[in-house]
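Re: the 149-residue chain
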Amino acid sequence: MAQAPDLTAPKRPVSHSTLGRAQRWSWIFQRVSGVVLIVLIFTHLFINLWSGDGINQIDFAFVAGKLASPFWQWFDFLMLTLAMIHGANGMRMVIDDYARKPAWRATLQWALRIATVVIVVLGTLVLFTFDPCPADADPSLLPSICEDI
């Protein structure tokens, strides 16, 4: 009669490792940022599409007027930043799930990080440096809202 193999003790489960904590905080961030983004996006849609004249009010002057207000600059900055980090975090999870080779995974994650930073930086520059009526521009090229300035 064959003898049963010796059983070894099971491996100790990984408990609260750094990776585990990072994954948990990533999961919590996705849920919290998703809820905050829903509020921000619906506020954005309400102000831009449903209040006033609706979609007919959106033109260069409307956008320039909004970007002249620090409140709307910070509101749009928060929406941009949260949306980009939320999306990048989701894409990071997809990369972790489907990129099997470590070198390929690292390359994709670095490309994602670089793209996220570039988009946030460019979007922030647009939000905080936008000037619809630059002083040294040709007046014939400026929009009509600049005639009063």
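The radius of gyration is 25 Å.
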